[in-house]
Input
Amino acid sequence: MRNCFEHPGEKTLEIRDFYWEAETRKTHLPTWNITGDPPGAIAKDVVAIVEFILDFVEGLIVLCAGMQTEHFPYILTRNEPPKTEMPIRYALRIDPSILSGKA
Output
């Protein structure tokens, strides 16, 4: 969608704010779509975008920490599913195979 917004051509990004539909007496949430495609909920897409950014940044931070501790025997693990009370996606853990000399 960003590409259609920054470089408009035949297809454009259409954004529709909250609106009231009098016939059905319903309020609709904001939507967006590319010309010709069905509209999608902005809120749903923003949640997915934020999840991706959090996942990317947390992985990057953990990898940077790993680069600073190259001499330390660690492995990068993904916590599935993240706990709701502490939603950490990635962790550095001690690699037992390296400590025991089996690697």
